[in-house]
Design a protein that fits this description.
16 strands; alpha/beta; Rossmann fold; eight-stranded mixed β-sheet; six-stranded parallel β-sheet; 2 domains; Dihydrodipicolinate Reductase, domain 2
Length: 307
């Protein structure tokens, strides 16, 4: 398989590096890279095939991983699907539900794989959380809390909700098979140029379970923390360190064994397997569409507060 990467920025170069390793292992025939910024693909000239024309890229690739800015996802993915190329598209799938549904429809019409990069579905730390949740060892779950932060300059047309909220939303669905809804309790302690850079949100997972989200571009610390409070225990999963701590009522904190894994590699292998088998497992495009619908709900609530 000839697999391409479109967009070789901070995230794209990490993705490209993993596919090059898979090629070196004989899993891929070749890796093709394209970016409008030629300086970004220049360092890969000795290790991959780099092309400076998008049209040429479309002629060469069988499948592609799209790592371009959020606002470009729809038009880039559409061009690829129309050219008969299987697509793994970074989250969010698009910036509105209509475009997301259009991509899903197009992929089905062309019998092509369309996946969305909800990468924590491949993280062993989150898979362990799912295992604990499904085992009923937690007892009655009261709430989920997500702390998703890093330092980032404001991006044109993109708020912190579109950047950081997709992963927590998808983790809730992956773990519980439910979706957060009815966002409320939103506060915006700081904003510049009317683009939300920090948000505190709450939502319902079901009638008796809540979810709380702290999202921020304003702290230097990169945190990807999930806490679950329940009747029997509290667990804290650190998705950066890939660790889980558990504290039963009245007890001490204990480490839960987690085998750390390379989530970019495992997601890439899943994409390759999906293309080869025709079976779209773990991160199908419809999951990405539902995530977009939920983010639109949250954004709508934020916009009402800003008026």
């Amino acid at each position: 398989m000839k697999l391409g990467v479109i967009g070789v920025g901070n995230w794209g170069k990490r993705v490209a590096t993993e596919y090059i390793r898979l090629r070196d292992e004989g899993i891929l025939e070749s890796v093709i890279l394209f970016d409008k910024d030629k300086t970004k693909i220049r360092p890969f000239k000795r290790t991959a095939r780099v092309v400076e024309s998008f049209r040429k890229f479309l002629e060469l690739a069988d499948a592609t991983h799209v790592c371009t800015p959020n606002q470009t996802h729809y038009r880039v993915a559409k061009r690829c699907l129309e050219s008969g190329i299987h697509v793994l598209l970074e989250k969010p799938i698009t910036m509105n539900r209509d475009e997301a549904y259009e991509l899903v429809k197009l992929s089905l019409e062309r019998d092509l794989i369309l996946q969305v990069g909800h990468i924590y579905r491949f993280a062993n730390v989150i898979r362990k959380v799912k295992e604990l949740y499904e085992s009923k060892k937690l007892g009655k779950v009261y709430y989920f809390t997500f702390m998703w932060t890093h330092m980032l300059k404001p991006m044109k047309g993109v708020s912190v909700l579109w950047d950081l909220l997709p992963h927590p939303i998808d983790i809730i669905n992956f773990v519980t098979k439910k979706w957060p809804r009815n966002f409320h309790g939103i506060s915006l302690p700081f904003r510049r140029k009317r683009l939300s850079e920090t948000c505190f949100l709450s939502a319902f997972v079901d009638t008796k379970v809540s979810a709380f989200f702290y999202l921020s571009w304003l702290t230097c610390e990169r945190r990807r923390i999930l806490e679950i409070a329940s009747s029997k225990t509290t667990i804290v999963a650190d998705c950066v360190e890939q660790t889980i701590r558990m504290c039963r009522k009245g007890g001490k904190w204990k480490e839960v064994k987690v085998e750390k894994n390379n989530t970019i590699r495992d997601q890439g292998l899943n994409f390759i397997k999906a293309v080869e088998s025709g079976k779209n497992l773990y991160n199908p495009s419809i999951v990405g569409v539902k995530s977009v619908e939920i983010i639109e709900e949250a954004v709508s609530r934020v916009e009402k507060m800003e008026r």
